[in-house]
Write a structure and sequence with these properties.
The complex is a heterodimer.
Chain A: H1 2-17, H2 20-38, H3 42-51, E1 53-54, E2 57-58, E3 83-90, H4 103-107, E4 139-142, E5 147-150, H5 154-157, E6 163-170, H6 176-185, H7 195-203, E7 213-218, E8 242-244, H8 262-283, H9 286-309, H10 316-322, H11 331-343, E9 348-354, H12 370-391, E10 398-403, E11 407-412, E12 425-428, E13 432-438, E14 445-447, E15 449-450, E16 457-459, E17 462-463, H13 464-474, E18 483-486, E19 489-492
Parallel strand pairs in A: 3-9, 3-10, 6-14, 6-17, 7-8, 7-9
Antiparallel strand pairs in A: 1-2, 4-5, 6-13, 10-13, 11-12, 15-16, 18-19
Chain B: H1 2-7, H2 18-39, H3 41-51, H4 64-76, H5 95-100, H6 117-123, H7 142-153, H8 182-202, E1 207-209, E2 217-220, H9 230-234, E3 243-247, H10 258-262, E4 269-273, H11 279-290, E5 294-298, H12 299-304
Parallel strand pairs in B: 2-3, 3-4, 4-5
Antiparallel strand pairs in B: 1-2
Helix pairs in contact in B: 2-3, 4-7
The chains are: A alpha/beta, B alpha/beta.
Chain lengths: 507, 309
């Protein structure tokens, strides 16, 4: 009797929880189903066939068992890269102090900026007529490829013949948050799926005991773009990036609280699972399945994540090679974690290192002070990461990407038209440098060229969507085919504008 | 005319005979024509071409010109200097035409890059007045310009093989996305489809096709670590010919698996990090390396690294 009451009450509650949205959602498909039912057996087949085609073009099928949303799926064609390590230098490092050797700019150091550089431009801080600013550090050619590099990255320089520089990156955003969103989601506005989410959606992940897309932060500050940078946008939320910490517990609230044993946790999860399945049966919202899968993954991660994140399990020699700082959230620690995660079959590993916004407004943002520190923080760990991947036979199928969200001006920043105490440069979206390595990228080359001041692109401009298309190609996808139907559009990482795979960058 | 010549019989020290007069006129006409031809090379070219005086240039389809140079000129130059339009009366869409030059004369001096307008003008900073391609047209990439300069420097020949140009930048990779024929794919996969399904059920996530369009397989046994050993690897025998990539890192495979691995005849990449490699396996790996398989193994690491999952 009591049971019957409970059931009645549950039904009552369920009806109360129904909203106008549910009605609208279901009535369309409900009426559609009624109509199709009248057509006999032919219609459903037609419907299914139509679902896999857009404008007569066959679409890739990404449906999976809802209980295993991260199950690996083969790419469209044979890939060169099987995983990505993206080193995002948040704040936008100066290309003119690292990779862009511009002797002509050095010659004009201190002279007034030509008017043509200012006309019709918007700057974050520069006002009036700023002075041109030569590179603060000497350059030299390095490696067999003879590419130019400044004296700030002596460790990375050892790998210069592995690097593929794109010197003609272009963006249309000149503020950090939208520019970072554009780099990571292909769109400067909120609500789009990040690169890592797309890749995890398209390929799943090999290790089902770890998230497929992991984010690690360092530099003392989160990137301006916030958690949207690793958000899944319109893709199911199971594909969003999981932020882990390289200090203390890797994933907060993952460990069982005192007094809760693993079997007890299992029992609890089973109960939650049963309730969630009932909800799913009632509403059919796929996000409910996502939640179930997330609980289960968290349970499996309790064992595997802490092991993967524990860099102290590495031999002392390896730790020293990266320059690991015990007990701190450092970029070096994160690089070593990245290598451990890559080895364990994590698909997309995203590192953010904040602190490259060298305006010169304070010591930490000065090209002649703070910038030096940033270089020192990333130089040795990146070199160690590349060397480690190579030794383990993983550089061949791991795509490593380095870069910021825009470049910096060849003019010295003059905030409020004043000469500033420290040396700095303003944001410059018109041209900047990124590099790629491993994963089917052509090593030891430079692509694109800027003018004598490093301000405008004169040869082979590369839009961010071109870079995305190229990276997806290396991962085994035609960027047009990795899509997701949402709001009446086959949404893509590369948006609706034409993007090209840059063949010159391919090995 | 001869009358006229006669009437001036005693007016000057010299008399011009009719024959001499005609001869002079003929010479003068020829000289003017010649001058015109010199000043307008296109005319000379046209004359030489129509008279069949032009030297035929030997060409081979495997030459550096055909493989590397012609495609660059075709994509960047032939729009204005080709079959459709001939700006400056210049065509760059055939070997003969390139050597012939245009309205302003030769565009290449074989063996002399400095005196070859073609080499110079594609090397100017993009956007400058004389730079080619002009205006808003995308400039040649640095590599493409190098290819053309090398070719002119080596004599602008139509037969010199690609192998003669060791310093040439590597050609750009081809971006090709092949449409999959579902029927052919199903046929290619059919011999292993059943066995693969059974293996996928037994070892989820460990084996799958390399891509959606391929019947080749990838083995990712490293995921199972120590739980994957010789017995498990032996289970993959029915599909072994299709395995192109195998990651056995950190697994417990040992000596008995040496033969199984060498029998994977399509193998291209083998990872065996953190696996103890002894005699038979070491020999197997050597065989594989000889076959051109990329082998990544590091026995020394097995003892020092934690490696266990």
């Amino acid at each position: 009797m009591a049971r019957k009451d409970q059931a009645a009450e549950a039904l009552q509650r369920g009806l109360q929880a129904q909203t106008r949205r549910h009605f609208l959602d279901t009535c369309a498909s409900g009426l559609g189903a009624l109509f199709l039912g009248t057509l006999g057996g032919v219609a459903p087949r037609v419907l299914r066939a139509a679902a896999r085609e857009t404008n007569g073009e066959a679409q890739l099928d990404f449906t999976r068992d809802p209980a295993r949303p991260l199950a690996p799926l083969p790419p469209q064609f044979a890939p060169k890269a099987r995983r990505v390590i993206f080193l995002h230098m948040a704040g936008a490092p100066s290309q003119l102090e690292l990779f862009e050797h511009k002797p002509v700019l050095n010659r004009y150091d201190g002279s007034d900026c030509p008017e043509s550089y200012l006309k019709g431009r918007r700057f974050a801080f520069i006002s009036g007529v700023p002075k041109l600013l030569g590179s603060q550090y000497p350059f030299h050619q390095a490696g067999k490829s003879g590419q130019w590099i400044s004296d700030r990255l002596p460790y990375l320089e050892q790998h210069i013949d592995d690097l593929c520089f794109v010197r003609s990156m272009h963006t249309d955003q000149f503020n950090h948050a939208p520019a970072q969103l554009l780099v990571q989601t292909g769109n400067a506005r909120l609500g789009y799926a990040s690169f890592g989410s797309w890749v995890t959606y398209g390929l799943g992940t090999e290790n089902q005991n770890l998230p497929g897309f992991i984010v690690l932060l360092s530099g003392g500050k989160s990137p301006d773009g916030g958690k949207q940078l690793w958000g899944s946008g319109f893709l199911p939320s199971v594909y969003q990036g999981v932020q882990c910490r390289s200090q203390g517990e890797p994933v907060l609230y993952l460990r069982n609280p005192p007094g809760v044993s693993r079997p007890l946790r299992r029992q609890m999860l089973d109960a939650i699972d049963a309730i969630n399945r009932e909800t799913y049966a009632g509403f059919g919202n796929p996000e409910t399945l996502t939640r179930i899968a997330q609980y289960e993954m968290a349970f499996r991660m309790q064992l595997d994540a802490s092991d993967a994140m524990d860099i102290h399990k590495e031999p002392a020699g390896v730790q020293a090679r990266y320059g690991v700082a015990a007990g701190k959230a450092s970029f070096a620690n994160n690089c070593l974690v990245a290598r451990r995660l890559a080895e364990r079959g994590v698909r997309f590993i995203q590192l953010y290192h904040w602190g490259w916004d060298s305006h010169g407004s304070q010591e930490s943002e000065a090209l002649n002070i703070g910038f030096k520190e940033r270089c020192r923080e990333v130089d040795q760990p990146i070199a160690a990461l590349l060397a480690d991947l190579r030794e383990r036979g993983m550089l061949d199928d791991t795509l490593v990407v380095w870069g910021g969200e825009f470049g910096r001006t060849p003019m010295r920043e003059n905030r409020d038209g004043q000469k500033m105490k420290f040396i700095g440069r303003d944001h410059s979206p018109s041209a900047y440098t990124m590099w790629l390595a491993g994963g089917g990228v052509r090593p030891g080359m430079s692509y694109g060229e800027t003018d004598d001041m490093g301000y405008e692109i004169v040869r082979d401009p590369v839009e961010i969507r071109d870079l995305h298309a190229t990276m997806l190609y290396l991962l085994g996808f035609d960027h047009r085919k990795l899509n997701y139907s949402y709001q009446g559009l086959d949404q893509k990482l590369t948006s609706v504008k034409p993007a090209r795979v840059i063949a010159e960058l391919l090995a | 005319m001869s009358d006229g010549a006669g009437s001036h019989a005693d007016s000057g020290p010299r008399r011009l005979s009719a024959r001499a007069y005609f001869a002079w006129v003929a010479v003068a006409t020829a000289a003017i024509f010649g001058l015109c031809a010199l000043l307008r090379p296109s005319l000379a070219n046209a004359v030489r071409q129509t008279l069949g005086l032009e030297r035929a240039r030997p060409q081979s389809p495997q030459s550096f010109y055909a493989v590397r140079v012609a495609p660059i000129l075709e994509s960047h130059c032939a729009g204005c200097h080709g079959a459709r339009r001939q700006k400056a009366k210049l065509r760059l869409d055939s070997l003969g035409a390139i050597h012939r030059g245009g309205k302003h004369g030769a565009v290449i001096t074989p063996g002399d890059v400095k005196n070859s307008a073609l080499a110079q003008r594609i090397s100017l900073p993009p956007g400058s007045e004389l730079a080619m391609p002009p205006g808003s047209q995308p400039p040649l990439s640095a590599d493409d310009a190098t290819v053309i300069r090398l070719w002119i420097g080596a004599g602008a020949s139509g037969v010199q093989p690609v192998s003669d140009f060791r310093t040439a930048p590597r050609p750009v990779a081809q971006v090709t996305i092949v449409e999959v024929d579902p029927r052919a794919l199903a046929a290619a996969r059919s011999p292993i489809a059943g066995a693969l399904q059974a293996l996928q059920d037994r070892f989820p996530g460990v084996i799958d096709y390399e891509s959606r369009g391929s019947a080749r397989l990838e083995l990712r046994a490293a995921l199972l670590g120590g739980a994957f050993g010789d017995r498990e690897l032996a289970a993959f025998a029915p599909v072994r010919d299709y395995i192109v990539r195998a990651d056995l890192s950190g697994t417990a495979v040992g000596e008995p698996s040496a033969g199984v691995i060498t029998a994977m005849k399509g193998l291209r990449v083998l990872r065996m990090m953190n696996v103890r490699v002894e005699q038979a396996m070491a020999a197997a790996l050597a065989t594989l390396r000889q076959r051109g398989v990329r082998v990544y193994a590091d026995q020394a690491k097995a003892e020092s690294a934690d490696g266990q999952r």
